[in-house]
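Re: beginner question about structure tokens

> Can someone show what the tokenized structure looks like for a real chain? I only ever see the sequence side.

Sure, here's an example I had lying around. Input first:
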Amino acid sequence: MTAQIIVALIGLIGSAVGSLCGILINTKLSNYRIGELEKKVDKHNNLIERMYKLEERADVAEEKIKVANNRIADLERGD
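And the corresponding structure tokens:
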């Protein structure tokens, strides 16, 4: 009977070690994936900020063009 208990304990220890190793590996993989996703989100946010700045510049350029066109029209009319 003691041999059966020893075999059962060895099986229990093996199962526990295997489960813990699986959990640790899965945790490392999950953390790695989360880290990569954070990098992608940071790149995306940076792109959004740059696009916002470009849109602001485009609005300013359009306003300058409108002002220049109005000045040209005034000069052509002789005002």
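Each token stands for a local structural state, so reading them left to right follows the chain. Residues 2-77 form the longest helix (76 residues).
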